[in-house]
Fold these 2 entries.
Entry 1:
Amino acid sequence: MGFLKLSNKILLIILSFTLVYCSKSILLKNINLTQTGVEQFGRTPNRDFFYPINIGDSLNLKWRTQIHGSFNSTSPSIFFKYLFVPDLSGRIYCLNSESGREEGVQKDKGSVEITPVIYRYRIFYVLNEYDEKYSTLSYYDFFTGKYIKKLRFNGSCSNEMIKIDDGIILLTDGGELYKINNIGEKVWSIYTGRKTTTSPALANGKIIFGTNMGELIAVDEKKGKVIYRKLISSGFDSGISISDNIAYVGDNTGNVIAFDIEEEKVIWNFKTGTKIKSTMISDGASVYAGNLKGDVYSIDKINGELNWKISTGGVINITPIVFDDYLVQPDLNRNLFFIDKLTGDVKKKLEYEHRVRMTPVFHKNTLYMGIDKGEVLAYEIIQSD
Amino acid sequence: MRKISNRHKILLALLFLFTNTLDAQLYFFGRNKVQYEKFNWQIIKTDHFNIYFYDDFKEMAEIGAEYAEEAFEELKVKFDHIVTTRIPLIFYNTHIHFQQTNTLPGFIPEGVGGFFEFIKGRVVIPYQGNLEQFRHVIRHELVHVFMTSKILNELRDHRLTVDRFPPLWFVEGLAEYWSYHWDTQAEMVMRDAVLNNIFVPASDFDRIYGSFLMYKEGQAFLEFIADKYGEDKILGLMENFWRFNTFKETIEFTLGEKFEKVDNYWVYHVKQNYFPLYLDKFPHFVDSRKLTDFGFNFSPNFHKSKNGNDIYFVGNRTGYTSIYKLDYIKDTNEVLSPDLVLEGEREETFEAFHLLENSIDVSKEGIIAFVTKSGDRDALHFYSIDHEFVMNSFEDDELVSITAPRFSNDGKFIAFSAIDNKGFSDLYELHIESMKLTRLTNDYFQDTDPCYGPNDEYLVFISDRTDGVNKQKLNLFKFDRETKYIEYITYVDADFSRPRFSPSFDKLYFTSDYDGTNNIWTMDESDLKFNSGMTQLTHYITSVYDFSFINDTTMITSAFEKFSFQLYEIDLSKIPDSLKHHVEFDYSGIGDKWIAKEIMLDSEDDIIHYEKEYTLDYAVSQVITDPVYGTRGGALLSLSDLLGDDKYYFLIYNTAEVQSELLRNFNVAISRVNSYKRTNFGYGIFHFTGRRYDIRQSNEYFYERSFGGYFSLIYPFSTFQRLEASTSLANSDKEIDFGINSRKALLLSNQISFVHDNTLWMHTGPIDGSRFRLLFGYTSDLKYSNVNFYSFIADYRQYFRLGFRTTVATRASVFVNHGKEARRYIAGGSWDLRGWRRWSVRGEKLWLSSVELRYPLIDQFVVNFPFFGMGFSSIRGALYFDAGGAWDDEYVETLGSVGVGVRWNFFNVITLRYDIGKKIEGDFSYFQPGLFYQFFFGWDF
């Protein structure tokens, strides 16, 4: 309509661009390096999702914020008082873990599908590049605000990185395994010849991962050499966790397999009947598994017998976390379940407007999680005795 | 092709939305989607669906609901995705009722088995008598639902614009691949395509865009990808969809291989699979005589009379499906042209033949029994060959669809299969003389293709009541007419159809897909008691759809080959014994009668009556700026209920040229259009204001403000004819010279029209049939008597078919407005008086006449540039003569033109037109010097 003057129109346009495009990069000066957080997916190289405390089922929503893109089935990482959240629009957000305020964001064109790994002042993250057939591992120093290194590799990466003392382990979807040191240089790389969408785990110096062809491969973390390959399934798509030298993994036909990584043999195999995509987790006594049919299982860690099973009616493709009392299981069908891990009773169910997308992370009495439309939520746990 | 189909409802809405039709020549013809039924809708609420059904369809709806939930659980795993909103699933009990749906604006052809529409996310499915097919269609459509949801979520999750979608071959191929196994029909289509050079590689899928072949090639391509690269790659294609701008790049990235290489592998795989068929299978032309070579020809029936031997069949050879007769002359290689016996699809009684179904039989006495859609249901007609007229017709209020009529041997009865209001597909028997109907079966098993035994003591029929290890396969059964007992004849893991006894009744013949495609098998009639087995006679590569006997050893078949259905004559005695393959029946696998699982409902509260739920259909807005008139803009919104029966339109726009005019120049219109019942009605209010072009004085404008309301009705007599009536009351203030000369009026306009349209369309316009409109109207100024005129329009168009793609189109039209402030009609331009400047011919009275020869000009040409190519197809030519004249009080002169033209249908969106010719000037006395050249768009008249 003619009543808007031309100058007003121009000003409106400029302001809009400014608001949309001028967010600041991640630049954090006051860092306490003595404080630990959750600096990789599963906290430890062997993927430990167990928190040995009782959390109860009482929660207070501490804050809620919205970022640009949505999430893959991954988790944020936490360091000091900062939450690093990857999103599918190619951004890494740094949020204040106490308030949810945005402290900075790194923007790229593509998607970040896996948990960024924090090493001191630096962050490793993988960008699956838009309109390109390669992806980029970026190593960014958020103290200086500069990129240290960028490593380009073919294909994409949906496998979680492993943080080790002297660097990270990266496994691409095309089956290339890299060890990168803490200054961002490649130490070694090997091509395994197998496509893999299984997040690896590391224990006893062995990097263990599964392939789409059903092999379990062990690679020496120091030397970068394949130790063994065992064909034990028709194909894997779920992550691996290792506990007491036993690797737990789910396969495409719904088998939960316990594999002794030293003895190189299958200990037991539990059939759920439907494909498993999330990572198996263990609390030392039981293994917890969920499949795409929406069933959640508790399986005896030693003998592979069923403790209990529940049917959620949803889709379980997100790794849960477990406490002394509860298994906290996200469900793609907009639910977060608090399940009594001994009995399998659903004690609490949080329903959301959109799909639950991220594996929760627990740190300093706060549970962090993400749902569709880029919503990040922080719940303060009112712990039971 | 029926271009008008999709436009019908949209234009109907515009008719209701915009009043003042009397001063506009914008009207349309078009067929009618008739709502014969007032469906009494109910909803079953399941975990993930709202299942809409009506009247007696509850039992089948509950079965369908169970199929839907079962499919949902499977698809959420396949897609690694969940649809979090409730999915509306709308069931119709037959295809005839399905064609009445208002969820889509256009007509639904017979071949459409269901659809998923994107605006409201509705899945709409007709039940067609077979539960396995019902399950297949439900699963197919739900794959669409999941795929759409997955893709849209992938794009939104990555914050990309939702402006692209996978190609249609992938969408439909995936729906087939993930909903059903590779079946006989798929196998037949692929065999035919590959072995007859119709098959296209994946890189050329555009060439078969939208065709059934595309569905099957897409399905086959995805199966190949899954086999060679892994099933997970199918999901990977969708999960990587966000990453690239072209689907080809997505394929390359996901499979890790160049697309051309994948395509080459696939073509090699397909050829490897199908070429060896030639070793022991045959095309239909081998050892047979081809009787037809054009169109689609089904259901042959031989009849011997004193006048000769003829083959009667249902065919589509012109665009209208009809009954034809072919002289049967033995031992000639000439392919004769059949004669038209009874033309369909031009009038209500024979509104549609069901071309792909078994729908015709001929008795020894020379009576043709055939089925057509006739109004709101199917009717069974009896046509006398000798007397050449339809003697009788049968319909029943309980029966919606009828198929497979079959005379008894004594000619007194006719058996057929029919679907009733519950959706049950059962056998019936009609005593022809008394028209007494007897129901023979009554359950949800599909029973069809009845055939009388030698002494009419029993019927052989096809049914999916097969249980045990071959559960739901369509096997042959025997029905004793006296005891009503049903027993198995065959029991194999295959589907059967068309049982027919030989003329001497010593053998039973039928088709079966036991070897992968429908071939002819036989068993001795005496074996029907002992059920010993069946023997394969033919080994064709593609299916035999139907057959009829000339004598015990000679047969006429309707067979699928080169993507058409043609009639062949085969001599059974020439089939060597070495090719006859025998299969024994093993009845040990028969189990308990199978029961279709119905959804378990928590309570009766899970079934509720439908109450209208309105949601937004679309919202469109636009702002335009030009240096002369400034900035203006507006919006159009549409709401409708879930079943599409009730629509609301909101239009708002502003035509202010300066800020001070802003409030004065708001244009608003609110309308409601209801098509729930047979009589569609609409009403609304409006306020229109702004400058109008005065067609009395060129380049002059006047300002008019009018506001008021209207009411309109449309009553369809049939698909082809309707009555339209409308009335509007509007206050009109006109400023002719600003501030000086103005006219006020309170206008009451009434009009009534009769419309007929049974035309057949081709690429650029009608090619057969006729259409006309007769309109009477009256407009008067109730308050100031400033306006007072009557209107009359007669517009008649007839199309005389000369060949399949050639026609002579004629038009004769008269437009009259007579009285005070009678409005002028306009003509001139590419749409009527070609050569004359567009809309330059004006008068309160106008006549137009045209004769045009329409013909195919260029079927296809391709231009290949170094980096890309372009193809153009179906370019048509026109040779025309136009004449007309316009006047107010005294006739001025006759205008005319002659010329040639070219038309091209641009992706079914618009037709581009280019004409060259000479005007006839001087009151039709001389041609213009030189030529005129005129380019425009628009369908042929």
Note: The radius of gyration of chain B is 31 Å.
Entry 2:
Amino acid sequence: MREPISRRGLLGAGTLGVGGLLLAGCDKLNQNPAVRGFLASAEDAHRASQRLIAGGALAKEFTEAEMSPKFRANGSLTAAGNSEWEQHLATDFAQWQLRVDGLVLRPLDLSLAALKGMAQRSQITRHDCVEGWSAIGKWQGPQLGPILKAASLLPAARYLIMHCADKYSGKPYYESIDLIDGFHPQTILAHTMNGQPLTVEHGAPLRLRVERQLGYKQAKYLMRIEARASLDGLYGGKGGFWEDHSGYPWYAGV
Amino acid sequence: MSDPEVAPEPAPPGPPPPSGLVRRHRLSTRLWHWTNVVAVTVMLMSGLMIFNAHPRLYWGQYGANPDHPWLEIGSRGNVGELRIAGMTLETTGVIGVFRNAHGQLMARAFPDWMTLPSYYSLADARLWHLAFAWLLAFALLAYLLWSLVNRHVGDLHITRHEWSPAHLWQDIKDHARLKFPVGEAALRYNVLQKMAYCGVLFLLLPLVILTGLTMSPGINAGFPFLSEVFGGRQSARSLHFIAAFGLVVFFVVHIVMVVLAGPYNEVRSMVTGWYRVPPEPKGPSDA
């Protein structure tokens, strides 16, 4: 008599079935809002614990000999499509100005020459992408702290929004940091990278460097910095492009 | 043992009671063991998905696409490849390129059945990985501290006699012949077991946790020595992967040993603490 189902076949099907159920179970858990909420609560613990451990500590700075031979450009590689930015690019950003506004007493419009005329900070730091790779480069620009002081933040200000000229997959790129990182000595607005004016693929004319967080916080193609009391009501409300569209954490110190 | 006021020794010695069952594993050991089953599984599966976002490993401080990786999982057309130390191994169907449940060929380093979630999502994998990291790390810390308090850590002490090549060789031969300890000897760790458990407890788990912390830019600012110790963030990432692979090797050997030693008895002892002591071989008249 022929066995209708071989034992081996049954075992194989059983293994596949159990495996499939497990996978489906994992994915189901992954999509459960309560589970996601619980997992996301660890993000608050990351921020709190890192602020406790690091305090005002500086990110490690490197020597020129330790720099990446080639610094990988990632994310948006141009802000083309934004006509205002395109016009500035055509004129070497001579008329470009960074707008600093929102919850400030004195809104500012800072030209590239004005930014270069301020006290400068130069730092060789490691850029860590959320994907896992790292590149070491040299950045130069004014610290953000003195600019915020010059604009005079209003008491209600809690967040600094970086409005960018680029779109990523058709949506405006933006990022945000809090005042602790805003006033950190290594938080600079970089116009120079590896001794050269910032190239288009790295975010010309100006990008944020917030050295104790991951790459997606280092907003490129800066146009405007807006001080706000909260992230609510701004785009997706989570404080950044990746935060809104991919679920990356707002605090990117891990 | 006649005086009930005297605390029993940590490892339950003496002849087994009539039932033949003895208390082998403490509650703390059993709790930690099953916590780890969950934590390590989640960490491994989500970690493989995180690796998928950049399936290349480097040595040193930096490392990105323009730089030279020592390990890479990739694909060329429909061929999956593992490139390691200058060699290229074809791995189609296993890693690099695999067929999903719908029969479609997918180009991804680690296939869906190994990862959490099964579909590509770096954000979701990080959500799981970074939450369960707390569980893994604090469970290890609590267990190490508690094992110092209850002196369980002493059970892992490898004696001078056990370090002798003759004893080690004997233990290796016994394992190879699947000759497992019986009687009282089954209630103590043998030297290979001690080495494996010490390796996990004092080397692999601390290494995987510390190299994980080293990859965080925030922790880097607070604890810059970590990156110094491991030779840079990308070296730490490589060591993190190697330590995780070491834990997988331990897991496989561990499961094989449990199955060979009698899975029902072994699993019962890790769930309830009660273990049936394998009887000593009887005299020749009983043979």
Note: The beta strands of chain B are 21-23, 56-57, 71-76, 79-84, 87-90, 96-99, 105-108, 274-276.
